[in-house]
Each structure stands twice: as structure tokens, then as C-alpha cells.
Amino acid sequence: MTDGVVHVIDDDAAMRDSLQFLLESAELSPRTYDSAVEFLNQLAGLKPGCIVTDVRMPGMSGLELMGELKARGITWPVIVMTGHADVPLAIQAMKAGVLDFIEKPFADEALLSAIRSGLARAGEEGRRSAELGQIRARLASLSPRERDVLEGLVAGRPNKVIAYDLGISPRTVEIYRANLMTKMGAGSLSELVRMRLTTDEVK
Q1: Is 105 helix (H, G, I), strand (E, B) or coil?
Q2: Which one, 27, 53, 82, 118, has least CB within 10 Å?
Q3: Strands laid side by side in the 78-82 sheet
Q4: What is the DSSP pairing of strand 49-54 with strand 30-33?
Q5: Do residue 30 and residue 121 come from a single domain?
């Protein structure tokens, strides 16, 4: 089985069973739900992955589900399935952040290809999230003075200017800078700056 779960949301039991069989045959890991509400109720305990949902369902539509996921900060890739008459809805969903939409009836391979792209993206998101967590933990380990020096470096200031601003010697700045590189696990100044800026991008 590949990493990540394919969360299938559809109120049609026959469609759920058909998709579960298709995904298992393709060595993917499906999990099915008969409504968006059921999926959301279980969300806290679910393994991240790709979401495949019908765009039109009773109770909560695929579009409304997208809005709820966004409100909860969930960025798992979403693929919507749509009947021909609902293509405008699917395009609206794309604008709301859906990865792809598949028209029913669809070719199995078209859906599987979209899902594999979704799982690859979900895996990349997971790696980025783990990397960000490590960076934040390293930043939290810095002393207040080390943080001051780091902010000076990120602002592009030379050691002499940082030293003047902080009331310390340029040699002391060099020592703090070396400590920063070690604590952050950075191999170069550019990598150190990139790490620090990465934490700003996701605020």
C-alpha cells in the first residue's frame, strides 16, 4: 500500500463500494464515508491523505466541505466527482482550492491518476510540515541574544552593524553567528536565512 489514505465521501452506497474496490485493486488505502458530516466528525482521528468527494450531497455539499476544511486549517488535497450538469459547481470548487475534478462517468485510470497526484502532494505537505516543525523547535532553542543576531542577519545587516545595534563587539557577533549555524543545522548563511523566512511564510 502507498503512504496516505484516500478518504472517499459519497452518499451513494454503490458508488462508495465501487470506489473502495477500485482503490484496493490499485493497492491504495481507501476509507469511505456516507456524508461530509460523518467525515468531519471523524476528522480528528484520521490519517492525512487525499479526499475524494461528490460535489453534490445532501446535508453538506463538497463545496461546503471545502469551506469547513479551510476554516479548520486542513490542507489535504481534494478531488471532487461531478455529474455533467454540475461542472460549473466543480469549477467553483477549483477556485476554492480543489486539486482536480472528475466528471461521472469517469475512466478508472483518470480517477486513479488524479488520486496519485493528490497523495504525492499530501506526502510533500507532510514533509514540509515536519521540516517546519523542526525549524520552529530549533528557533525556540535559541537564546534571546542569538535571536537578535539572527534577525540582524535576516535583515541583511553586516556583522559590524549588528554589533553596533546590540552594543557588542563584532567578534562576539561572529561567535553568536557560529552558534546559530550549529543550533539551526544550517550549512550556509543563505540556508540559515531561508529557515527563518520559512516560518514567516506559513503564519
Answers
A1: coil
A2: 27
A3: 30-33, 5-9, 49-54, 78-82, 100-103
A4: unpaired
A5: yes
> 169 φ, ψ to 5°?
-85, 155
Mean pLDDT of the region 76-81: 90
Q: What is the pLDDT of residues 139-192, one digit of tens each?
A: 999 999 999 999 999 888 899 999 999 999 999 999 999 999 999 998 888 888
Are the CB atoms for 161 and 150 separated by under 8 Å? no
Residues 10, 96: one domain? Answer: yes
Domains in the chain: how many in total? 2
Q: Which residue, 78, 104, 128, sits at the end of a domain?
A: 128
Which grid coordinates are listed for 54? 461528490
153 near 162, Cβ under 8 Å?
yes
Q: Which residues contact 94 (CB under 8 A, 6 or more apart)?
A: 100, 101
Quote the longest CA-to-CA distance of the chain.
73
